[in-house]
């Protein structure tokens, strides 16, 4: 068996508030194989974002986390950032609003490097940027020079996704990235997300409240409840899984 892309062993997160401690992620054990696309379901407050924060190093966790066999438990969020890209629910989170679409994309291609953005590099890549953005079919390719704050939510989320995958991250975290979009735009972005993950052979986790998306996409589905892993369906099990089978987790 190939080495796990990511593994969590006995990972727990405890937060302290008003002299009380609360464990919001409990003894999580999860082995993510390379190219797994795992959809993550759970009620509000189940611990889904906490799981992402523990993996990304935004919340301190006990237990052990490895990326491609390397123990990263002691690394902070900045040190883990070279392995991870995350797309959030809020279209404003992933892009620099005053900068143009093209500038945002070129910056994403050089994320983590010391060099600054150069106009010449941007011009040299214009054709490629046009081609990459055209695949969304939402007019983004016509807006390469527009500030991203003028884009629609759907255009901005598709740009955030494209930026997140520019450097082929070892792990892509999708944190309800379609939740703020209308059903049609959400469906478009989901189809494209799936295409990009497959084409780039990415390993991804996707939190969603849209049960149909959780069932339709990915090769594995997990359910969190009250900070614990309640269910973990592999590819074969997921194929036969129905909405009704999942309802017991949401009563
Ligand atoms: N930094 C924190 N400090 C204190 N409590 C926190 C912190 N982060 C999360 N929590 C609490 O932990 C629980 C799990 O939160 P989390 O955001 O992970 O849930 P979620 O499954 O992502 O929910 P939602 O679907 O609403 O986004 C909640 O009760 C939340 O209030």
TrEMBL record:
Instruction: Identify the SMART domains for this entry.
Output: AAA
Sequence ranges assigned to domain ABC transporter in this UniProt record: 6-251
For this UniProt record, the keywords arranged alphabetically read as follows:
ATP-binding, Cell membrane, Membrane, Nucleotide-binding, Transport
Q: Which PROSITE patterns match?
A: ABC_TRANSPORTER_2
Q: Which Pfam families match?
A: ABC_tran (PF00005)
Q: Name the major location.
A: membrane
User: Which GO cellular component terms are attached?
Assistant: plasma membrane
UniProt topology in membrane: Peripheral membrane protein
Molecular function GO terms recorded: ATP binding; ATP hydrolysis activity; transmembrane transporter activity
The subcellular localization recorded is: Cell membrane
Q: What is this protein called?
A: ABC-type uncharacterized transport system, ATPase component
């Amino acid at each position: 068996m190939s080495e796990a892309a990511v593994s969590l062993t006995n990972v727990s997160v405890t937060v302290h508030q008003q002299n009380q401690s609360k464990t919001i992620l409990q003894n999580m054990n999860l082995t993510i194989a390379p190219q797994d696309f795992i959809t993550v379901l759970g009620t509000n407050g189940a611990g889904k974002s906490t799981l992402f924060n523990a993996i990304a190093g935004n919340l301190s966790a006990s237990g052990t986390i490895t990326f491609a066999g390397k123990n990263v438990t002691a690394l902070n969020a900045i040190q883990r950032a070279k392995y991870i890209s995350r797309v959030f629910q809020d279209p404003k989170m992933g892009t620099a609003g005053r900068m143009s679409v093209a500038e945002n994309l070129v910056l994403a291609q050089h994320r983590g490097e010391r060099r600054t953005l150069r106009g010449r590099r941007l011009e040299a890549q214009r054709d490629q940027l046009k081609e990459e953005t055209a695949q969304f079919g939402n007019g983004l390719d016509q807006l390469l020079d527009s500030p991203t704050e003028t884009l629609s939510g759907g255009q901005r989320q598709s740009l955030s996704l494209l930026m997140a995958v520019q450097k082929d991250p070892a792990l892509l975290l999708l944190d309800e990235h379609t939740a703020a979009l209308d059903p049609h735009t959400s469906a478009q972005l989901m189809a494209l997300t799936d295409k990009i993950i497959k084409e780039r052979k990415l390993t991804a986790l996707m939190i969603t409240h849209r049960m149909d998306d959780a069932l339709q996409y990915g090769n594995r589905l997990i359910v969190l409840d009250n900070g614990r892993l309640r269910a973990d369906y592999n590819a074969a099990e997921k194929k036969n899984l129905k909405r009704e089978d999942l309802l017991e987790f949401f009563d």
